């Protein structure tokens, strides 16, 4: 199932669809395109290389100029539409442009989550040095972003897809990068359009590093679109 939320979003951000010369439709970029996913991964690798580079100044200047050419080439073929938001058969939202899970978004890890038989959201992940906050540790805001998303997925698979109203975090231990970790989340309960979930980022043995609880609210406009109400 694919739901079109673009109209509500566009009303809040009408300039975001892009109408400049040189733009292109979604089909040109190819939704779910393997080539686009590979490009996104190449850019992630590039970002990691930039963070870790020890190249001399003149080499950095030369590389920067080469990258500027590639950036201009892509910018000239800018897309005019968003990647669509779809729900897989388990009810997990899928969105190639998502900042956490988007395979086509270089900013995303990308996080790959699964729904377990008991409806827990579970994702194995590994942060990279690009996510560093305190020395040798992952930035707390990055952990929060991951937890926001998996909690949101937990309420979505329970039928309460919504936007975050509140997110409360307890940073129990420092989160390392470069090591395997596990993010999990479970739906807790609902009242009307409000749904609660809890989750955590933990070591593979279950030792919690960051714990989260969140309230998600199905926006009135989504509810009206889903029920066909005016
Ligand atoms: C598609 C699924 C994707 C799942 C994975 C993605 C997970 C990631 C999610 C995000 O990151 S979302 C981005 C961060 N969140 C936002 O940007 C939300 C911004 N806020 C809003 O858009 C609106 O305030 C909101 C949709 C949350 C509520 O607007 P509504 O007009 O639909 O609700 P309304 O104002 O009528 O309030 C309904 C109830 O919720 C309560 N409420 C509203 N906002 C609240 C809030 N922020 N915190 C706590 N309670 C809140 C409100 O008091 C009221 O309670 P009662 O029913 O008891 O009276």
Automatic annotation (TrEMBL):
Thioesterase domain ranges (all copies): 138-193
GO molecular function: hydrolase activity
Assigned keywords, A-Z: Apoptosis, Cell membrane, Cell projection, Cytoplasm, Fatty acid metabolism, Hydrolase, Lipid metabolism, Membrane, Transit peptide
Main localization, broad class: membrane
Reaction equation(s) it catalyzes: hexadecanoyl-CoA + H2O = hexadecanoate + CoA + H(+); (9Z)-octadecenoyl-CoA + H2O = (9Z)-octadecenoate + CoA + H(+); dodecanoyl-CoA + H2O = dodecanoate + CoA + H(+); decanoyl-CoA + H2O = decanoate + CoA + H(+)
Comp. bias intervals (Low complexity): 15-28
Membrane topology: Peripheral membrane protein
Locations listed in the record: Cell projection, Ruffle membrane; Cytoplasm; Membrane
Cellular component GO terms, alphabetical: cytoplasm; membrane
InterPro entries: HotDog_dom_sf, THEM4/THEM5_acyl-CoA_thioest, Thioestr_dom
Domain of life: Bacteria
Region (Disordered): 1-28
BP GO annotations: fatty acid metabolic process
EC number(s) reported in the record: 3.1.2.2
Protein family: Belongs to the THEM4/THEM5 thioesterase family.
Protein name (record): Acyl-coenzyme A thioesterase THEM4
The organism of origin for this protein: Streptosporangium subroseum
